[in-house]
Amino acid sequence: MTEPQAPVQQAPLAFIYDRHATATKTILGIRIEDCRTYATLKGWEVAGVWIDEGYDALGDDHRPEFDGMCRAMEQFARSRRVICLAQGWDRFSRDETNSASLRRRIAAAGGYCETASGETDPPQAGNGRLTTPAIPT
Fold first, then answer.
1. If we measure between CA atoms, which residue out of 63, 78, 64 comes closest to residue 109?
2. Does 136 have pLDDT greater than 50?
3. CA angle (111, 131, 122) in 5-degree steps
């Protein structure tokens, strides 16, 4: 009689995010490659790369690629650990308040954020989903 096999644990999914406003793409390529290398070293599967470019990269209120990434993360977060991977916190925003707000959106989608240098927003309870305490009745 054979022992039942434990379910195979799937590798976490890394969703690489960046923003880039200039026409020169050299530094962008370096940042993305840093993220890919980091994900490989961690044993993560790269789900894709989302980049807000031009004017979309400059403001904090209109990020179509970021929005699409959050929707994709939300779908996968039901069954796998999902991480938004960026080269540094400034890839979200140079303004700390706006950066934190965007990273909270990642948590609300079921994931957490990590940088290619190992900084992390630790996952919340519930597979990374933000939770609110129950209101006593």
1. 78
2. no
3. 45
Q: Which whole-number Å values give the CA distances from 22 to 25, 52, 107, 117, 132, in the listed order?
A: 7, 11, 29, 24, 39
Instruction: Render the burial of 74-97: b for 16+ CB within 10 Å, e for the rest.
Output: bebbeebbbbbbbbebebbbeeee
More confident residue, 61 or 104: 104
| pTM exceeds 0.90, yes or no | no
CA–CA separation, 74 and 29 (whole Å): 26
Dist CA 1 CA 31 (whole Å): 52
Domains and CATH numbers, the chain: 13-115 (3.40.50.1390)
pLDDT above 50: residue 75: yes
Q: Is the pLDDT of residue 135 over 50?
A: no
How many Å apart are CA 35 and CA 25, to the nearest integer? 16
What is the C-alpha separation between 23 and 74, in angstroms, rounded?
31
